[in-house]
Amino acid sequence: MHSQETHLTEIEIEDRLKQHGYRLTAPRSVIVEAVLRHNRPFTAEQLVAELGDGPDAIGRATVYRTLEVLASVDVLTRIVSPDGHPSYISGAPGHRHHLLCEECGTTVTFTACPMNDLIDTLATDTHFLIKDHTLEVFGICPSCQESRS
Ligand SMILES: [Zn+2]
Ligand SMILES: [Zn+2]
């Protein structure tokens, strides 16, 4: 199975931003650090709550805008978490999908895309020009299965 550890660093994200003409400004750097602290899906509002207090508080609009920038340079993926909330998960750039535990949020990223045959068939049958797709897989991780029994 081609699952992949995708531990990004702030340096890698900074490089990625630079390649796309963005600078890692001070507020963006604080947001990137907060993003990297999450190894499970998080919502924009969670980050707003984490960063919105204190003397160096970062405003909601900046958080939302920066998350969109990070998604646009492909180090953050928008997903729908098992409870139905729009969430984000960080990861190394490239085509990727996620397997999520619906009890604890543990996330496994996999890069082996199983959709190619289906997409070829769909394109042939419908004459759509297919541009992209999402696939999320939900389940119960081994440690949550254990604590259930
Ligand atoms: Zn779990
Ligand atoms: Zn895919």
Computed CA radius of gyration, to the nearest angstrom: 17 Å
The helix-and-strand class reads alpha+beta
| Main beta sheet | 4 strands, mixed
CATH 4th-level superfamily = Winged helix-like DNA-binding domain superfamily/Winged helix DNA-binding domain
Give the number of helices: 6
Strand order of the largest sheet: 1-5-4-6
Mean pLDDT: 91
Straight-line distance between termini = 27 Å
CATH topology: Arc Repressor Mutant, subunit A
Please give the CATH architecture. Orthogonal Bundle
Bound molecules: zinc ion
The top-level CATH class is: Mainly Alpha
Overall 3D form: globular
Summarize the amount of helix as a percent range.
40-55%
Q: How would you spell out the order of helices and strands?
A: EHHHHEEEEHEH
How would you characterize the overall build of this protein?
The protein contains 6 helices and 6 strands. By secondary structure, the chain is α+β, with helices and mostly antiparallel strands. The chain has helices at 10-19, 26-37, 44-51, 60-72, 116-126, 142-148, and strands spanning 3-4, 76-80, 86-90, 97-101, 107-110, 136-139. The model has no long low-confidence stretch (mean pLDDT 91). α3 packs across α4. The protein has a single domain, classed as Winged helix-like DNA-binding domain superfamily/Winged helix DNA-binding domain (Arc Repressor Mutant, subunit A, Orthogonal Bundle). The strands form 2 sheets. The protein has a 4-stranded mixed sheet, with no helix packed on it. A two-stranded antiparallel sheet has the order 2-3. The chain is globular, with a radius of gyration of 17 Å. It binds zinc ion (2 copies). One zinc ion is lined by residues 101, 103-104, 106, 141, 143-144.
